[in-house]
Amino acid sequence: MQYDFDVLIDRRDTDALKIDAMPAIWGRSDLMPLWVADMDFATPPFILNELRHRLEHEILGYTMRTSRWASSIVAWQQNRYGWSIQPEWLNFVPGIVPGIALIINCFTEPGDTILVQPPVYHPYFHVPQNLGRRLRENALDLVDGKFQIDFERFGRDVRGCKLFLLCHPHNPGGRVWTSDELRRMAEICHREGVIVVSDEIHADLTLPPFCHVPFAKVSEVAAECCITLMSPSKAFNMAGLTSSYSIISDEALRERFHRFLANSELHLGHAFAFNSVAAAYSHGTEWLEQMLAYVQGNIDYVEQFLASELPQIGMIRPQASYLIFLDCRKLGLSVQELNALFVDKARLALNDGAMFGKEGEGFMRLNVASPRSMIVEAMYRLKKALLA
Ligand SMILES: Cc1ncc(COP(=O)(O)O)c(C=O)c1O
Questions:
Q1: For residue 37, what are the contacts with CB-CB under 8 A and spacing of at least 6?
Q2: In this predicted model, what pLDDT tens digit does every residue of 263-275 receive, in sequence order?
Q3: Which of 41, 153, 255, 387 sees the fewest Cβ atoms within 10 Å?
Q4: Do the beta carbons of residue 149 and residue 185 sit within 8 Å?
Q5: For the chain, how many structural domains are there in total?
Q6: 355: burial class by Cβ within 10 Å (0-12, 13-18, 19+)?
Q7: Is pTM beyond 0.90 here?
Q8: What atom in ligand 1 is closest to the CA of residue 233?
Q9: Ligand 1 mutation pick, 96, 227, 322, 325, max ligand atoms within 8 A of CB
Q10: Which atom of ligand 1 is nearest to the CA of 97?
Q11: Residues 6+ apart with CB under 8 A from 380
Q12: What is the pLDDT of residues 365-380, one digit of tens each?
């Protein structure tokens, strides 16, 4: 079946964060929303049909995990990543960020130190800090247009930390970490007794020819120190269903986290938590491949447009996902001036790179998971604003 990603869908009056939060942030609602990381494409019909089917039953009572949910995840991990996991390694978590907060509460104490790699997804800063944990930053290096880890510095920075929040693939840098890089991180973290929380929410959005390798798969020591968090929410545009899961192969880590979740009665999920995931993973391959090809087309378009029309703006080409980190440093603008250019002049709502850490200053994060016509219009608005 051929899916159509060119369709423009009006998201107003659907409580969409991307639209409804604009007045509070930018004081206006006339911006093209290319910020929050969800997609303007329809959630696939096989997921919507599953939910409709559930709604045909008139009782929305308590729910629990199903064997279909677990076996669909086991099969997805095996078929897509060659990772053999067991159903009992899985746990429902109500979203990845809430999952990170739960892991922090379960495995660390106030005052403990947590390692992050800026520029990085901003809740990695505020969730640990709001929970009274200290942050340590292991900044990534931008080398030849690609974010990289300085492993000597990483070895020093990890020391004394309790947890390491690994963004894999990396947002906003778009890096797909290689097996070799993951193995090195695992060796160091295992040696230092640090638990790695591998946030793999963008994994299914890895763009060919790059391949995602689950952190916990790369070595025995990686599996021993890792809690993996995953969800079909990004790749299948169902973030509003807050249905994610953890995979933990190490028995001691698993038992501790399972007990923690059960003690808070968080394991029951909700009426759409399990069927939606099973539908995505059971029927999603063809849709996902077409969607990723479309997104690659949008990335190509932006890359070519910038090269020919706006060479003063560069971009980090993502190896995964639909988020492009635009490098605006050559414009020589302050953070405020750069935001004024995008918001007031171009009428575009993007994420200011500075929100991902000071390493992101001078960058803007552009979400290209929208119909091509929107991306084309965004590029022309930007050009007009810059030339004005
Ligand atoms: C790296 C990363 N982790 C987690 C999330 C959000 O996950 P959730 O909505 O399940 O909390 C995002 C969303 O942009 C993300 O980019």
A1: 171, 234, 239, 321, 322, 323, 367, 369
A2: 988 888 999 999 9
A3: 387
A4: yes
A5: 2
A6: middle
A7: yes
A8: 10
A9: 96
A10: 11
A11: none
A12: 999 999 999 999 999 9
**The domain that contains 314 carries what CATH number?**
3.90.1150.10
Atom of ligand 1 nearest to the CA of 37: 14
CA 201 to ligand 1 centroid distance, Å: 6
pLDDT of residue 268: 86
Span from the CA of 19 to the centroid of ligand 1 (angstroms): 18
For residue 3, is it within any domain? Answer: no
Q: Which residues line ligand 1 (CB under 6 A)?
A: 37, 95-97, 121, 167, 171, 199, 201, 231, 233, 239, 244
Range of the domain at 113: 59-282
Best CA proximity match to 147, nearest among 121, 117, 123, 124: 117
Strands of 207-256, DSSP E:
226-230, 244-247
278 and 289: one domain?
no
Query: Strand (E) positions, the chain?
Result: 32-33, 90-93, 113-116, 134-137, 141-143, 146-148, 163-167, 195-199, 226-230, 244-247, 314-316, 323-327, 348-349, 351-352, 363-367
